[in-house]
Design brief:
single chain, alpha/beta, OB fold (Dihydrolipoamide Acetyltransferase, E2P), Rossmann fold, Ribonucleotide Reductase Protein R1, domain 1, 3 domains, 9 helices, globular
């Protein structure tokens, strides 16, 4: 039977199959030999014998997150608050970069629009080339549009504390209540290990929470290639006077011209420069 790993705890993997059954499985030893670890989100093939399941095949992954470990994510919903807390664009931009590096589509979800309209923030990311959905979990606004994005996809919710992820998940299904219960248990149990779990949506698709995803860690991106991960910069970056322009201090830079004209948001450019310096320092440190 073919299925998807929806949870993994203590070396056991719980696989949901097309017949809506969930089987507890162990992975075959060959995966350990090949240094492959079954991961939540993996599409797998299993066999059941004497009520014991075995994962026989792990199909090729189209994406893989390391923190939290989850495979085959289609979309990362980056939840930000229009206010309370005020949006931190540098954190948002780092989460977007994390998604793009992993080959996952980032979508910006602006919550708490009942407090503030969020139009300015929407314009920044819409102009940068990203899809933006404005919602209010409190007033149940924008939920239908969000549902349409989640349908038949595996989607991860990411965002800092206080932006309303749990409230949104509660609006979508009872998933928020389930994840909230898990979170409460972890906070109460000192020796409890948080596990990643996919929650199925009634209209098709899965969602999960991604704690820690807002943390940016230097990756294999090269500093001089970073601008390709900023769509609004990539669109004009080849028009600079100098080939290999880093869009920092070079003269006749098309990116900085667009910045001066207001076609690129200053917050986005500031994020670019900050991340560039992080990547450059990492590269210099590795040379020593």
């Amino acid at each position: 039977m073919k299925g998807i790993i929806i949870k993994g705890i203590g070396g056991f993997y719980y696989v949901k199959t097309a017949n809506n059954s969930v089987y507890e499985c162990k992975a075959r030893g060959i995966f350990r030999k090949d240094k492959i670890t079954p991961t939540v989100g993996d599409r797998v093939e299993i066999t059941i014998k004497d009520n014991k399941g075995s994962i026989d095949t792990i199909y090729e992954r189209k994406s893989l997150l390391i923190r939290p470990p989850v495979a085959n994510i289609d979309t990362i919903i980056i939840v930000v608050a229009a206010a309370e807390p005020e949006p931190n664009t540098k954190i948002i931009d780092k989460m977007i970069l994390n998604a793009k590096v992993a080959g996952i589509e980032p979508i910006i979800c602006i919550n708490k629009t009942d407090i503030k309209d969020g139009d300015t923030l929407e314009a920044v990311y819409h102009n940068a080339g990203y899809r933006v959905i404005k919602v209010s979990a409190k007033e149940s606004k924008g939920i239908d549009e969000l549902n349409s994005v989640l349908k038949d996809r595996i989607s991860a919710f990411a965002g800092i504390s206080g932006v309303g992820k749990s409230s949104l998940l509660n609006e979508l299904t009872d998933v928020g209540a389930q994840t909230g219960e898990i979170s409460d248990k972890i906070q109460r149990g000192k020796h409890t290990t948080r596990h990643v779990e996919l929650f199925e949506l009634p209209y098709g698709g899965y969602v999960l929470d991604t704690p820690g995803f807002s943390t940016f860690e230097p990756t294999d991106i090269k500093a001089d290639e970073l601008w390709h991960y900023f769509p609004e910069m990539e669109a004009v970056g080849d028009n600079c006077r100098f080939r290999g322009c880093l869009h920092i201090n070079e003269p006749d830079c098309a990116v900085k011209e667009k910045l001066d004209m207001g076609n690129i948001a200053h917050s986005r450019y500031e994020s670019y420069v900050e991340i560039y310096n992080i990547l450059k320092e990492k590269k210099d440190w590795e040379k020593k």
